[in-house]
Predict the structure.
Amino acid sequence: MSSEMKSFENLLDEIKKIVDTLEAGKLPLDESIEKFERGASLIKECYLNLESVKKKISLIVEKNDGTLDLEDFGDENQ
């Protein structure tokens, strides 16, 4: 992964282009495999990007008494 994380939207756009190219079925097998590997790498990068963002997210949760509280996104006590 590059030192500068690509935006999630840019990653998805590149994945979509790869999928469209592969679905067209006009590439030689070797190029198709290269595209598939690139797509898999981009999906992994998307996952890492989402995990990084997930760590930063806090949810505002309304308690039974009407007050608001902050909880970590990954808190299983929600």
